[in-house]
């Protein structure tokens, strides 16, 4: 009886995982390890020094967050139109992973082409799809680091690599130090894999509950919000005074999150491109 149940349940679980994340299992197992990417954390081939150290964002500014664009075969699903909504108070854009569907060179180049047309810095986050089929080498060559800090005077942006569904002790130690040294700054964290799920059948969370507990503990009282994607649906939670905002995928929904910051706090709204 137990064997029969396993034969029935196991395929269903696998199907849920594959459908929910559009996973290519062969590509997934062909990806590289986080430690390889961590060693290249100071490599910057796309972001210029000026992008990485912008002048102060000021007290009142906005920024845009998008996730899961899944650029495929040169098709960016309308992302090119993003430049039409960039106004004077929008200081930067972040795309929280799965920028491409399978890490192909032409698709990374398409992202760079669009990013360079925006008129503001665009900060890329690596997602699981971006490192499929060993294509971390393409990301490394054309973009570079998957873990980095942006200091904008009044705010600090921390980009984390969760493309393999974990952070690793070294990256979390780095995060802790960056949070401690961000005294007086607003802190916004961006990564790919979401920390929270909407239902028990959502298989989109970290492989390590210990890591999940550590990062929420580190961010408590030190971070304004953490933005993620991956789950392809909107999930908003609050823990320890931190907003955790998972975005639905741009690929199918053409939505983006506009975040507005003032001395009183910050707010967000979802818009259609």
Name the descriptors.
single chain; 273 residues; alpha/beta; six-stranded mixed beta sheet; 9 helices; globular; disordered N terminus
Tell me what you see in this structure.
The protein is an alpha/beta fold. It is 29% helix and 22% strand. It is built from nine helices and eleven strands. The protein has helices at residues 2-21, 25-29, 34-38, 49-52, 105-116, 136-142, 169-180, 209-219, 250-253; strands at 61-66, 90-95, 122-124, 148-151, 155-159, 186-190, 225-228, 235-239, 242-246, 255-262, 265-272. The strands form two sheets. It has a six-stranded mixed sheet, covered by helices on one side. Helix 7 (169-180) packs parallel to helix 8. The longest helix is centred in the first third of the chain and has 20 residues, at 2-21. 40% of the residues are buried. Mean pLDDT is 88; it is low at 1-30.
List low-confidence stretches.
1-30
Strand content: 15-25%
N-to-C terminal Cα separation, in Å? Answer: 52 Å
* Assembly category: single chain
Helix content: 25-40%
Write the layout of secondary structure elements.
Blueprint: H1 2-21, H2 25-29, H3 34-38, H4 49-52, E1 61-66, E2 90-95, H5 105-116, E3 122-124, H6 136-142, E4 148-151, E5 155-159, H7 169-180, E6 186-190, H8 209-219, E7 225-228, E8 235-239, E9 242-246, H9 250-253, E10 255-262, E11 265-272
Parallel strand pairs: 1-2, 2-3, 5-6, 6-7, 7-9
Antiparallel strand pairs: 1-10, 4-5, 8-9, 10-11
Helix pairs in contact: 7-8
């Amino acid at each position: 009886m137990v064997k029969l149940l396993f034969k029935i349940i196991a395929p269903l679980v696998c199907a849920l995982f594959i459908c929910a994340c559009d996973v290519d299992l062969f590509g997934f197992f062909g990806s590289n390890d986080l430690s390889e990417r961590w060693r290249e954390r100071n490599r910057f081939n796309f972001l210029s020094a000026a992008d990485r150290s912008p002048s102060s964002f000021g007290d009142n500014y906005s920024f845009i967050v998008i996730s899961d664009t899944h650029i495929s075969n040169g098709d960016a699903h309308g992302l090119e139109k993003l430049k039409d909504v960039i106004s004077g108070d929008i200081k930067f854009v972040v795309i929280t992973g799965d920028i491409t569907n399978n890490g192909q060179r032409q698709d990374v180049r398409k992202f760079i082409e669009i990013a360079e047309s925006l008129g503001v810095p665009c900060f890329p986050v690596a997602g699981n799809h971006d490192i499929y089929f060993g294509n971390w080498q393409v990301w490394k060559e054309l973009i570079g680091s998957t873990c980095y800090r942006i200091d904008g005077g009044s705010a600090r942006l921390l980009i984390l690599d969760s493309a393999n569904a974990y952070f690793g002790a070294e990256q979390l130690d780095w995060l802790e130090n960056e949070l401690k040294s961000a005294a007086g700054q607003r802190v916004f964290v961006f990564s790919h894999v979401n920390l929270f799920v909407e239902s028990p059948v959502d298989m989109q969370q970290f492989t390590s509950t210990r890591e999940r507990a550590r990062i929420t503990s580190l961010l408590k009282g030190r971070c304004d919000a953490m933005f993620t994607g991956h789950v392809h649906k909107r999930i908003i939670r609050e823990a320890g005074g931190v907003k955790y905002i998972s975005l639905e995928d741009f690929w199918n929904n053409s939505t983006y999150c506009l975040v507005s910051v003032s001395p009183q706090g910050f707010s967000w709204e979802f818009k259609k491109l």
